[in-house]
Protein 1
Amino acid sequence: MFTGIIETTGLVSGIERAGTNLTFTIESSLAAELKVDQSVSHNGVCLTVTGIKGNSYTVTAVDETLKKTNLGQIRPGDRLNLERCMPANGRFDGHIVQGHVDQTGVCTAVQDMDGSWLFDFEYANTTDNVTVEKGSICINGVSLTVFNSQPNGFRVTIIPYTYEHTNFRELKVGDTVNLEFDIVGKYLKKMLAGYR
């Protein structure tokens, strides 16, 4: 389980294809603290560490993951938001994040508010995923609060710290992002649908 509080970013230094899978080599200050078989969130996607060498480590994304996330669009030189699993004695600063992306969305607007940034996102409403005003959403692994909630879109505010310490500073209109909707909201929607 994750919280959506990004620890650092990692630089993608290599990508290798093996059949339908992609193996990513990532340079990060976290590499020395990782273990093989450990779970790490990469842009909100839970992936298993398969190798460590110096300040780099490797993870592999299977075809199903590549189809449902933005990892298939990642190129060498891109930065990924990284978070290790929440320790049992840690603080719960974000919200419950599983590292299981529900679907992708697209950035439709970015506004510099001279002290913060407004980002608008749209997603296909062909699924049962919903947002609620002042509810939680995970975008590329970052726990954020929704406002201007619409049937297939929403807006978030990014504070300077988050902007500087995540890949939000590189995000532009037209970019695809990973979305994980609030698990509590998903369970409630499923239960209520069963009573109809």
Protein 2
Amino acid sequence: MSTTTLSSVLPFGSEIGPNGHLLLGGCDSVELAREYGTPLYVMVEDDLRDRATRFVNALEASGLDGQVMFASKACPVAAVCGLFAELGIGCDVTSAGELRLALHGGVPPEGILFHGNAKSDADIADALSVGVGLIVVDAADEVVRINAAAASAGVHQKVLLRVTPGVEGDTIAAISTGQEDSKFGVNLIEAPAVIELIEAADSLELVGLHLHVGSQLGDTDAIRRAAEAIAPLGSFPVVNLGGGLGVAYCDGDPQGDIEAFVAGAAAAARDCFGEGVKLMLEPGRALTAAAGVTLYSVEGVKRNVSTWVAVDGGISDNLRPLAYGSRYEALIADRVGERPDTPARVVGKHCESGDEIVSDANLPAPKRGDTLAVPVTGAYGHSMANNYNAALRPPIVLVSGGKSRLIVRRERFDDLLGREIGDPVRSVGDRDA
């Protein structure tokens, strides 16, 4: 049997088992698929802990006081938020739902930062009621609304002001956020007036500035330029330079360098805002993406010019290929060590030609019943999962040391039907009299 080495994008500690199966966190991935069903999100705990610890240590090594905040939109799961909280990482939330998940996971309220470009009055009330550490002001009108709500609640709320620096990161348009014409934040021209408005508000305390230039960044050049752009707005105790460190999705892609990224952001903060500034960073994808692998069952293989490998999931559990043209790898978990010899297109079960998970896979003689693994799905798989074709959203298992633990259960048909109004006309299995 010809063998090949494991892909570099598999989670920390992945191995080939004695039976040729892919081992994730010491667990046989084929057995995981049998036990929990497919599609299945698998998260490797050791990978999560390794990346989180590297971020925390790198910030400490920078010499600046600071705080790492997990951008939970990447993987809004209570157990993941709680794991990071144990390691000293706070949580960045953008909705009432993410706020509840963070709290449910054990993140202390003072370790939560709440932001978003379209906060409702209910969102603001939620954030104030639990005592979040920071709220990010995204527009001038929010100053008035947050101040009034804080006054009504008898709260003195610390805030950051999100500024759009007019700097574009080297990334695709859909995940670029720092350009001048953006739905996020206030621009450099309006920012001084908004700062004055916040400083005049009786129930708010402006502690710093916030920016974010985009996702899938290879370095901190854009972050430095953005920091330089907003530095003339004034001296504040805190600066939040966002996140955005990119990850490798396919073997051979450049790997994001956590230590270099943190060091570069710290140098930019120090140079632009002074030695005493507190630096906040908001990694999301860089903490969770590589820890995740999605397992599918192969339902069919056929030849229509291309070889089409159809699995039991698709855009309902990974929307990124359709939304962004994102590229992934695919592996046959049952025979992960065998040399691939079949170029194939891995597609989902949904009624869209664009429901294609991997367009250029190379697999070892795929067949129905195989367990197919797609690495680097720990970010924006679960968070963007949906019910297209009334599909049930997958469960998540956390694996470590050869043991697995269910942390999010599979959605059930009762979950779908529970939102429908009115008496059911017919149930599956009913027959005419």
